[in-house]
Amino acid sequence: MKNVVKLNKAPSYRFVIWIVLTIAYINIYMGMQVIATYATSIIEDLGVSNTAISFISNGTTIMLALFSLIGGAIAMKLGGAKRTMVIGTIMMLVAGIGFLAHPNTITQLVALRLLQGIGAGLVNTFALGIAPWFPAKERGIASGIETGLYGVGLAGITLILSYFSTLGLSWSSGIGTFLCIGSALCLILILLFYTDIEKKYGVSSVDELLETPKETTSGSNAADVENLPGSYGEMLHSKGFWILFIPIFAYCYLVYNLAFSIPAVIMELGWPASTVTAITSVTFVGTIIASPLGGIISDRVFKGRRAETVAIAYFISFLFMVLVVVVKGASVGTFSLMCMIAYSGVTLAAAPVWVLPASIFAPKFFAKGLGVMLFITNIAGVIGITISGVVQDATGSIMISYWITAGVALLGSIFALIFAKTYKK
After folding, report:
1. pTM
2. Would you say residue 187 has pLDDT above 90?
3. Which CATH code is given to the segment(s) 221-422?
């Protein structure tokens, strides 16, 4: 460990890291959507069922979750985050090459997606874990802009793959081309511009570089530094971990389930099919604005008290999920706005909810702790989608699972308030 030279302000190199990690983050989640985008073509070409497509998507998400969980531990074995991300990116690149070879069986498709999911998981913990690179007072905004671009990525992958189709590329060629180009770009950026913070500055967090680090965390939701868990055992005995468990669980449960259920709810409420697509498109536009806004509110309005922002965001989502169903006779514009706010409430929480783990884990344990949180939230998404699909098939209605999703939003809000009260300075 090199001698630490104290600085008056955070190094500008953090913005280089932010660009590299944000591109890697967007590439992961754009890549996760390729099967859903090409689902119809895959079903027709391979003769598989919708259930098989769902299984492939869930299997990839589980690999993403599992290797996000152990990514921090693997990084310690390999000698740092950079080497781990390089290996993960190469795996996604190899998966892309596999798709270019035109897989023609469900077994080949599953194998390639599992490889992609493993690679994505190895990168994911560090791509989303930008908190150590920014002072506490800047983390919400930095994370908010990064997660806000998630919405841009989801819209972008549809446009990119549609363009590939106009060029005459098959579904496998389209997926392979995207994965190869995206992964190659990320690999180059990581190799040329990324350096592990411990090797660059000899610290685990930028706050340790600053001459007055206490000022950067004043008023934030944080436990006493000396009491922060630095191992899995200490984490499991930490009150903060178990309180934050619910808001973290709620995040992907809500993100995945609302994306799945809102279009079905709109149709079940009697809106014409021609209107459903328009309302759905407007619904997801709000994510681009809401995520950065959540970061600004948590950093500037609440002065780093991010749990309060999460609680408000989840409650907004809960409230408007209720209004979407109970308000009768609304115009298309009003109904679209309610749907947009219901979904945007969740993404309003994106920045603060992913910065909060930095306040309950010791800096040296942050990557491992964040990996646990990513595992929890991605598994929650799989659980939620599974519940929604089973309940809808059994009852013929989306409403029961929709109300369960609303309940998760309310529960997430309550536990975020409990966290805020527990760690109020």
Report:
1. 0.81
2. yes
3. 1.20.1250.20
